[in-house]
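This week, look over our next protein:
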Amino acid sequence: SIFFGVLTVLFTSAIIASLTPIERLSAEMAGRLSPTILDMFIAIVSGVAAAYVKSNEKILGSLAGVAIAVALVPPIAVAGIGLGWGEWHMFFMAFLLFTTNLVGIVFAASITFMMLGFSPLRVAKKGIFTWLVVALLVAIPLYSSFKQMQADIRVQKELNNLSFTLNEHNITLTQVKLIHKPKVDELRCEVIAT
């Protein structure tokens, strides 16, 4: 059911994106295109919380479903939009975030349910081991993205408020942003000049 749900959301959002004349990346969409290992940690915490909420009758059960939907639907929808636009980088990065959230939630929820006594260790260990391997495989590109984010922050700190003189004019760079695209990296900034 997860597989068919993912395909349905992907193709629905791809069709809507291809039929809609707007092809501008919004800030919400861009926010789902640079997953890092930090997203995996957030997904794991979400999985623990969701499993605990589901196991505790005193807490509203629909809360876990809403939390999981918020973590899973936006990135898979952005992946579908990337598919509809033919933007493969956008598709892969958003799909990586979706996969990260799904794997982190399922892995952490499995461990939480086991610790709460829903399944003995001997029964649960095969499933937990499988999800651990998948989580480690997903963590490889996430760690790479995290290292890239660290490098970007270092460059931004070095260039932000950089002042120099050009043809007797004082120039200062502010609001420095690095944007990574498939074939070229862009540096965008505001230039303040006398």
User: Anything to note?
Assistant: The radius of gyration is 21 Å.
